[in-house]
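Something for you to look into today, if you have time. Just paste the record in under my message, thanks.
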Amino acid sequence: NVRHLPEIRDEHEPDGKFRIFHIGHLYGKRSAKDMFEALALIKERCPLSAEKIELSFIGTLSDDDMKYAQKLGISDMVKYLGVIHPDALASYYMSADMFLVIDMNVPRSPSFPSKLMLYHYYRKPIMSITTDDSIIEDDMRMSGHKSFLYGDAEGIASYLCQLLDGTVKADGFDRDYWRKFTVENVTELYLDRILKLISDESDIDNRS
């Protein structure tokens, strides 16, 4: 709810690290494997950038994902912070350089994690891993953030390398986008999406 949000303070530690945070639970059809493969590519192709990246997970991460990070040799780039009480989360939001949102890997995913609203509120760059024509992909496009499809570890790696060496910037997003997340606007977003899905399914049935 945008009516009850914490004050934003700069709590970034000037230690040269580029902190990417994923906040939430990853299991089932949500997986960090593409992100881990991207980190492995960064470590291989631009090691100076790899030394700067710190990817942190707050919440739960599947055993398969954790084992995959070890297999790829990127455990030094990844931190597992576990479940943290909501009252203590604000400092982590404030210390992030970028937020990561990982969608369900299903066609045209209708998911919209509640944490994404807070990501927007903290006015930091956001990167998503999602599926084509999903609600999250639409949200990233409208807000000016970066979105990648599942399976595009190459694209993620290339983007982060360029971001860290200064070739590209991640500051072209809408810093007032968070203001759209009133109860009324979110309800309208979901209603529009559901009606579109129903309409598309109806068109498919009529052509069958």
Summary: The chain has eight helices and six strands.
